[in-house]
Amino acid sequence: METLGVDLGDRSYPIYIGSGLLDRLGDLLPTLAGKQVLVVTNTTIAPLYLDRVMAGLEGLQACSLILPDGEQYKTLDTLNLIFTKLLEQKHSRTTTLVALGGGVIGDLTGFAAAAYQRGVDFVQIPTTLLSQVDSSVGGKTGVNHALGKNMIGAFHQPKAVIADTETLSTLPARELSAGLAEVIKYGLIRDEAFLHWMEDNMSRLVARDGAALTHAIKRSCGVKAEVVAADEREGGLRAILNLGHTFGHAIEAVQGYGRWLHGEAVGAGMVMALDLSCRMGNVPASAVARGRNIIAAAGLPVLGPADMSVDTYLEKMAVDKKNVDARIRLVLLERVGSAIVTADFDPGMLRATLHDCTAPT
């Protein structure tokens, strides 16, 4: 087992990464405020892992809630199901919520924990690569709205993150690739040596080599922990974690949440960010080709969907949490391994990037 820490003073917490951790929950769970526990999961994960998690909570007053699976259910209506369960079971403010699933379950459960009785504890048990390397760490929680992704939410840090790499064995290949998008992101924005490692080991990652996955998860979480510790509430540095996301969120919003997986949209979005960075003179064309090649090697799309126009992108990109005073702000590279957040780009260059990085009709 590998152990990392997110350093946030008295709200610091551990990240445990390893195989078979679901069977060690009794040893890994933090000290709980009370005996009440609600495990929130979904219809895909429950048959696979819920019994093992409930067994690890023996001796506690634990119950579970099984939600439908899919990004399209990351809504206020689904969130209300969690509140209803907590209230029906008379959970107090010393209860602990456990998120067992991917990013959707983690975001919903974390937001419920942030809001229920003005804040209760929660623990992340991520079961997808994307959630293990990204969404489970850092305390971002929330739901989608028809007009924008993740526009309703709160910062609420977990008490622990327990990432059992065995759960990746049941992950569909498409979702594994979607998680690799976030892994690639960390190399592009902050660690070129890690990017080199991925170029040499992408085939091992796609083949689910245990040692390679553990290394990728550990380094990804390490980068995110460093950034979150420096800027917990995204006042500056933390926004670099959104490389490709403004483009990607536009794709998700237009295509319908779930038709393009989040990581697939981010993969195409990172190519767009690289392309615009090149047009601005920040990185050479070889860096764009390099990024496109590694994204493609992970099994991800490198072009946006053919049915999206430049104006459609711009309309959706205008609704983004990074924007200030109605100006689109983007995460771009100043060089490979270093990112910036800026609104200082030529609108004509952005339009050219959107046109050239979209699949032909």
Note down, in words, how this protein is organized:
The structure is a single chain. Strand 7 and strand 8 form a beta hairpin. The strands form 4 sheets. A 4-stranded parallel β-sheet has the order 4-3-5-6, sandwiched between helices. With 361 residues, it is α/β, with parallel strands linked by helices. Helix 3 crosses helix 4 and helix 5 packs parallel to helix 8. The model has no long low-confidence stretch (mean pLDDT 96). The chain starts with a strand and ends in a 5-residue tail after the last helix. It is globular. The protein is built from 13 helices and 11 strands. It folds into 2 domains: 169 residues, Rossmann fold; 184 residues, Dehydroquinate synthase-like - alpha domain (Dehydroquinate synthase-like, alpha domain), CATH 1.20.1090.10.
Summarize, please.
The chain is of the alpha/beta class.
Gyration radius (Cα, Å) is 20 Å
Oligomer: single chain
Estimated share of beta-strand residues:
15-25%
Tally of strands: 11
Total discrete domains: 2
Query: Biggest β-sheet: count, sense, barrel?
Result: 4 strands, parallel
- Which strand order spans the largest sheet, edge to edge or round the barrel? 4-3-5-6
The pLDDT mean sits at 96
Helix content: 40-55%
Structural class category: alpha/beta
First-to-last CA distance: 48 Å
CATH architecture of the largest domain: Up-down Bundle
String of helices and strands:
EEHEHEHEHEHEEEHHHHHHHEEH
Low-confidence stretches: none
CATH superfamily of the largest domain: Dehydroquinate synthase-like - alpha domain
Shape: globular
How many helix segments? 13
